[in-house]
Amino acid sequence: MSFYDYDTEQINEELLPPQLRQPIHKAWLKVLLHPLQWVRDVFFDSYIAGSAATNWQSGTPYAAGSRKVRNNAVYESVVFSLAKNPEKYPDVWVKLQDCFIGVDERLKYKAQIIVFEYALNRWFRNTAATDQIYIENNVTDSDFFLVGESDILSSTVSTSDLFATDFVGQDYTPGTQYDYTIWFPVALYNSLGSNAINRENAVRQIANKYNMAGMAYNIDTF
After folding, report:
1. Residues 36, 56 share a domain
2. Predicted model pTM
3. Which string of b and e fits 142-162 if b means at least 16 CB within 10 Å?
4. Residues 156 and 115 in one domain
5. Over the stretch 166-197, which tens digit does the pLDDT of each residue have?
6. Do residue 69 and residue 110 come from a single domain?
7. Which residues lie below 8 Å from residue 73, measured CB to CB, with a gap of 6+?
8. What's the domain count of the chain?
């Protein structure tokens, strides 16, 4: 059990003298210490461990204290809410954290393909048993001649083809090459933005954090 796992209501009752353990006294102390318990729960139970809140739905009434996710951020309603977008009504919703995924979990994310795929499906809340976001490695063509601004940045050319590092051909262009492709279900991908640029930026916002340096990727749908 963690040192930080505590309940102020239980502590109140244990520390009160027996003659003062009356409902009115316990209720009064509970109100006084509620903000402390709230901060503790938000930090350790939501920010560190992750939030179980579901997505906010337009037109759905929410009671005060309801927690909902909007664009991966977690909000809590401070008053009764009906058709109030959490991102546009800070007087109705208070933002608790930027990401519903807990810090403990995000610390384990990395570029290893199975973990990378899990992180993408988790981030975009893709819970479908099929049509999962997946990554496919591509075969790249490195058999071409490079001409750079200096000899260090260029391929080697020798008087004999036996010592040349690359074949020098005519009118050859390798084009843009990607080390891997991130495949998205088309319906999910289209829901990420109103146009192609916004949708791609939404994916790269998370994928760029775990993409290995020097590797290029593209995004496609199925």
Report:
1. no
2. 0.74
3. eeebeeeeeeeeeeeeeeeee
4. yes
5. 555 545 455 678 999 999 999 999 999 999 99
6. no
7. 86, 87, 95, 96, 97, 98, 99, 100
8. 3
